[in-house]
């Protein structure tokens, strides 16, 4: 029996050396050390031995089992490494291939334009003042010197809410009143950015929602020269050092006098092109000296305080700058458009 054990042991080691895969190893294990494997079958015959020989046989079986188990573990490790090496060389990785580009997203062109505007006015000491999108008729119109049936309301057809006299703001100018209520009697230098809403026919040139950046300066001895200087500096920082500006008389109920500012066309340098309609000028914003009634409504005494205000449309600036001919593109969420900025 001991001899038989030795032969089994020898044969098993040889078979093990020939096992080259996980399957080979599994089979070997089943046939050798498994519950119905050759070693186990041999031990069952222990009963046919003389009683004295049994412990010796048992000890030898245990030694053989341990040796085989160790041989199996070593071989299994070898096979695993060999399989891994084969896999690595088969699936060789070309580390010189360029990686996959991760789409990153970017800022909306209007956000970019707004931030460029904040930067210029920020450098001139203007703070960003956030005002609300849902506004009362009083703040949006009345305190800005638009009485209830004033014809200037006609230009700003409004979206009404279910609450009487609560509307979506039609311009950022209402924020002037809120800023004045908060700051008075301190001097003010703020810009008021945000979305505005008008009940308009949607066309390539007008949308029902669009952004504005309002500006307001209130203090002592502020004159129209300050307005011109500030806005001309803005135009040069925004559109180029060589830009000229001109101011044309206009009308807004909340400023007096009022003006519209044109900037010499930055596309043709004032020579005349399609964008400036061969005038050499681009209309950029509305502005004026804060009307005494508005100062009063904000809590400032118009006998001792003066101020200027302006309002501009980032969509219009972006359209001029990038040659965009349809304002609807900004809020249509079409990636083919947005990815270009
Ligand atoms: N609120 C005006 C508009 O919507 C623009 C403006 C702002 C004009 C401030 C003058 C001063 O058209």
Strand content: 15-25%
Q: Ions, cofactors, ligands: which are bound?
A: phenylalanine
Unreliable runs, pLDDT <50, ≥5 residues? Answer: none
Q: What is the strand arrangement across the widest sheet? A: 1-4-5-9-8-7-6
- CATH topology of the largest domain, by name, is BirA Bifunctional Protein, domain 2
Query: Helix share of residues?
Result: 40-55%
Computed over alpha carbons, the radius of gyration is 43 Å
Q: What is the end-to-end distance?
A: 87 Å
CATH superfamily of the largest domain: Bira Bifunctional Protein, Domain 2
Q: How many β-strand runs?
A: 9
How can the largest sheet be summarized?
7 strands, mixed
Elements, N to C (H/E): HHHHHEEHEHEEHEEEHEHH
Mean pLDDT: 94
| The level-1 CATH class of the largest domain | Alpha Beta
Concise structural overview:
This protein has 341 residues and is α+β, with helices and mostly antiparallel strands. The protein has helices spanning 2-18, 22-32, 38-44, 53-90, 109-123, 137-140, 174-183, 224-239, 292-297, 314-322, 335-338; strands spanning 127-128, 134-136, 166-168, 188-197, 209-219, 245-252, 255-264, 281-290, 306-312. The protein folds into 2 domains: 2-90; 109-338, 2-Layer Sandwich (BirA Bifunctional Protein, domain 2), CATH 3.30.930.10.
């Amino acid at each position: 029996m001991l001899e038989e054990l030795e032969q089994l042991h020898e044969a098993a080691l040889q078979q093990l050396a020939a096992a080259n895969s996980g399957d080979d190893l599994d089979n070997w294990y089943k046939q050798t050390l498994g519950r119905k494997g050759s070693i186990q079958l041999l031990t069952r015959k222990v009963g046919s031995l003389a009683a004295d020989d049994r412990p010796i046989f048992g000890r030898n079986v245990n030694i053989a089992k341990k040796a085989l188990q160790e041989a199996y573990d070593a071989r299994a490790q070898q096979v695993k490494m060999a399989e891994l090496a084969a896999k690595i060389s088969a699936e060789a990785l070309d580390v010189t291939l360029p990686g996959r580009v991760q789409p990153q997203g970017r800022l909306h062109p209007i956000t970019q334009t707004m931030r460029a505007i904040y930067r210029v006015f920020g450098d001139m000491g203007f703070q960003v003042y956030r005002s609300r999108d849902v506004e009362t008729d009083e703040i949006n119109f009345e305190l800005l010197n638009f009485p209830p049936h004033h014809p200037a309301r006609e230009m700003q057809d409004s979206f009404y809410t279910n609450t009487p006299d609560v509307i979506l703001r039609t311009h950022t100018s209402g924020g002037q009143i809120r800023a004045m209520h908060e700051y008075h009697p301190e001097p003010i230098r703020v810009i008021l950015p945000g979305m505005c809403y008008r009940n308009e026919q949607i066309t390539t040139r007008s949308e029902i929602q669009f952004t504005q950046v309002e500006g307001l300066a209130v203090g002592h001895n502020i004159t129209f020269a300050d307005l011109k200087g500030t806005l001309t500096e803005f135009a040069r920082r925004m559109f180029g050092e060589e830009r000229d500006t001109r101011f044309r008389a206009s009308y807004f109920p909340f400023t007096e006098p009022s003006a519209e500012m044109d900037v010499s066309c930055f596309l043709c340098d004032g020579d005349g092109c399609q964008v400036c309609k061969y005038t050499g000028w681009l209309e950029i914003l509305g502005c004026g000296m804060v009307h005494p009634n508005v100062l009063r409504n904000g809590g400032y005494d118009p006998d001792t305080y003066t101020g200027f205000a302006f309002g501009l449309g980032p969509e219009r600036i972006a359209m001029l700058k990038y040659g965009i001919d349809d304002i609807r593109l900004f809020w249509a969420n079409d990636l083919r458009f947005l990815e270009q900025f």
